[in-house]
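hiii, so i know i said id send this last week but things got crazy w the move. better late than never?? heres the sequnce for the chain we talked about at the cafe, plus the structure i predicted for it. fair warning i was half asleep when i ran it
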Amino acid sequence: MDVKQAIAERLAEARRRTEALLAPLDDAAVMAQHDPLQSPPVWDYGHIAVFEELWLVHRLSGVEPPDETLMHTYDAFENPRMVRGGLPLMSRAEVAAYRDGVDVWVDDRQVLVRHIGTPAHTTNDSIAWLPEERVLFSGDLVFSGGTPFLLMGSIAGALDAVERMRNLEPAIIVPGHGDVCGPDVFDRIEQYLRFVQRSAQDARAAGLEPLEAARNLDLGEFAGWTDSERIVGNLHRANLELDGGERGAPLQLVNALGDMVAYNGGRPLRCLA
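okay and structure toks below
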């Protein structure tokens, strides 16, 4: 086996084992410092990610770290265990996104490619952020003028993704579909996602399945968006989350897509946005 491939596989296995250790803990338990002799679990998680970057990127390539503050925050010599709970720590999702990020340079232009940190449009969404120009390439996390599609991802996760993108304070968003737009698009997407969640809750209370619920639903301001039949697939996803399903968990795709076709008058599904 190639040496680089072997190292990569061992690193991937170590990451999987680390994730498995944290999996039983909720976010509050991961962030908390349970004893002065112990670090908050999320500090150790961040320490691993930061030192992966230190040894695998900076020490080997000689480039400077993009965020020197992180190098200090997660330095075990600078910060004894008893003080780590008071540091400005990344959340679990932020650590995962940082760990899975790549910095790309195009001449003198820096592009930060980051995993969004949660299932949203799919289970593996990334963004490209140009910090100097404040331009965000959002991929399919943003549909400008079109209906978002979360069947393969998560409604709740998409809301988190919107908040993370909004916090970047971009001036320009290049969406995966639709026209280039400004940050006000985040408000419209958030409104739609919360509309889907409320509609799923109302349908559940009325005993309606997603197709019937969608047929009885007034899309209101969202009716003019292209690919409106996606409301059916989004309701399928929202229903799974109401049942306690994990973000991005598998569901009955054939049933959901069949309901979308039925809602669309039997016409094949298209992607107009």
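btw Residues 1-99 form one domain. thought thatd interest u
miss u guys!!
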